[in-house]
Amino acid sequence: MRRYVLRRLAVGVLQALGITIAVFFVIRALPADPVSRIVGMNPTEDSIRQARHALGLDMSLFQQLLTFLGFHGNGVFTGSLGTSWVSGSTVLSEIAITLPTTIQLIITSFIVALLVAIPIGMATARRPGGKLDKGVFGYGLFAGAQPEFWWGLIFIFVFYFKMGIAPAPLGMLDPMLTAPDAVTNFVLIDSLIAGDFTAFKSALGHLVLPVLTLSFLLVGPLLKMTQQSMSRVLSSEFILYQQASGLEKKSIGRSTLRSALAPIITLTGILFGFMLSGAVLVESVFSLNGLGQYAVAAVLNLDFPAVQGVILVISVISLFVYLGLDLLLAKIDPRILVK
Amino acid sequence: MTPSEALLSTRGLTVKYPYGDVQNVVIDELDLDLYPGQIVGLLGESGSGKSSLALALMGLARHPGVVSGEVNFRGKNLLKMDDEELRQIRGNSIGLITQKPRQALDPLVNVGKQISRVYRAHSHASKADAQVRAIELLRSVGINDAERRVNAFPHELSGGMAQRALISMALSVEPDLLIADEPTSGLDVTIQAQFLDRMWERARDANIAVLIVTQDLGIVANYCDRIVIMEDGKIIEDRITTEFFADPHTAYGKKLILASGAGTKSSNADVAITTTPEILRVTDLRKTFEVEGGKRLQAVSKASFQIHKGRSLGLVGESGSGKTTVGRLILRLADPDSGEVWFKGERIDSISPKEFRKYRSKIQAVFQDPFDSLNPRWPIERVIREPLDLHTEMSKAEKGARVRELVSLVGLTDDILPLRPGSLSAGQQQRVSLARALATEPEFLILDEPTSALPPAARADMILLLKSLQERLDLCFIFISHDLSTVRELCHDIAVMYLSEIVEMGTSEQVFSAPSHPYTRALLDSVLFHDPSSRRVDRTVKAELEGEIPSPVDLPAGCYLAARCPMAEQRCRDDHQALIEIGPSRSVRCWKSVEASK
After folding, report:
1. The CATH number of the domain where B179 resides is what?
2. Which of the four, A251, B446, B460, B472, has the lowest number of CB atoms within 10 Å?
């Protein structure tokens, strides 16, 4: 078990490194020159040369890679992702601010989505063709056909503009409030640490619409998967046998859910990795300064260190999420050997 | 017996499956009475509703089916009971054993927990007590090492062991009615006999009512007091077993009796050892497979035999005996580790696959699963024509004529030619496979369990067809099967395999009339003849084997049968046995049998 985890981690680190190096070369192969964005209009030869030198772009590609990795001073191996060419602060510190916003958003969305999808999926699998099932089908047609930012805009229109029950879609907190001291950069947690319940309530309030939007989207595939997986287990031989053995309903329900869980967990993992950067549209609509926003800005500004940093961080997080889910699956299903 | 004495009686029992707006009726207004102490065999083709009936007797239907009508158990309608009352009857008063033991167990929970769950659902036992009870129960159904096995997960059990675990669950609460849905279909014949004997004893001792759903007339003849035949969700015949065998009323029943050949004995029996030219010779064939953990599984060990023109060899054994692998090695679907295969004086095991291609039209095969071996997207005409396209230079018209000739040869009609395999019955599919195999006029056929996946009536038809083809075409073939009565009807010579080795060889007559090896004797003894006048339960069976077949990965040092053999001595456990000739064309791998024959 421990050996398995260590091996997975070792392979994962190599994978992450491989991805980062690949990204390193690919963005440098783009037919766009980051220097021109920095020196402004009508630059002199000299200022271009200076800028190239300042960004380290006058070195050979290989030397640039070595610098990035940390063979000359600070780099990936020493825990530094370099300095953003746009803001001048370290990439790590910027990710430390944007990442928690995104994680907070998607974890809450997943919790909400799973809490909705699993019970409804179970109920509809039990009664295919029932009223709930038909409703779910309608939802699938309806929700699946529209992009998430559109739903975000509709929710803002309805709940903020028309009904006025949701806060303005501007960031994580009410603009009138001072943010609690940054400890974890998760606003919800920081406000609790600071004992600032006004800020906590405001942060929670600001999460409602973005979470509603994201989970509205996530529920679709999760619900479908729950339904399919549940109806497969429900029509399985062993559930029938448990009924025939006169086991209690609760006990049978537990067995069914446990057996149906594996594909749902796998799907959750895949969606999670996707959402890390895929939540960008929702972040935009609600002006949340998240990782997706940061990544898009980095690419548009040709901010190479930031792009490299974001991709490395996302691959490392995905690595841990997948590992965690695989261990969870092995815990649920004894047929999955963890050696 | 009158309905009032019935333990369970159904009136107007109906099971429907909704498909959109259509209702698919699988059990149609059915009335059935079951009495204490009576063992009833329920027969019917697949799709006749037997399994659905077995479940419906407990008020259950496979998701999303709906049960209606009356199921009166001790005079009270199960379908009107509340959940708790019904739950107390299921698994407590009515026990169920299903067809697929391993699928019936929750794959995520260990066996001990599953047994104790059922036990606890019907008693007030504590978790610890239930665990102790689970170990007792496993031991009582003959699982050695029960303390360790309670912690095993279903996928770690063999089919036989999973079946026993299920039995121990069904019997944990001593039911009044036991419903067994093809309880032995996944088991080997010697294990099947063990299981049925034990069930019969339990039913007699405790005066339990038993309903056995089966496709095997042998089980009915040997163990059942009464036979019920279903067709299209209805009962078409409900008789006392002996009366049924003497005079079946329905066409289907008559066909079953006729097909089972009850009473008829072998026809091929005593053709003398022939001097026709040799077609196939196999010497010292050996094959192992690598399994997880770097170990090797011994599939075939030192198999040697030859087949002469016009003769047929039956390769008999239980699952895992290596009989199928022998066929695959000859067909070059796998390469042997060592040994030789000669076809008409030419060695074919070491030639390149390209060179082997020219023998493909001479050596053909029919496999067990008829549907899997046919391309589902091709019309039958193309399926049968394919070998002609590959191996002959015939014109289009000649091929068309040959295809029609083949179709009629296997007893089918031209109108199936444009159909696709999916719209044929299993029996018809298997005939198509046979027609395809015969297309190039092969000199040698390998028939790998061609009858095993067929329902009883189709199986009987297939055997009759093979028999007539054998006479008309002078076919030369290996017939691989675990079904001894079929082999006896079709084969001149027999080789019995057990755990990768041939343990006994001889002509059909020799082996069937005087089996020599203890394994052969046990195998013959576990054949359930379709004759209620000589039931296995009325005989005293001496050659019964005990326990499970050892793993082919960790084979014992001495005789492979020693651990199960009633005659085993120390010498058997120490010395590996060699196949020794004890007469003309007759050999056996057992020193005791050799001594006895002298």
Report:
1. 3.40.50.300
2. B472
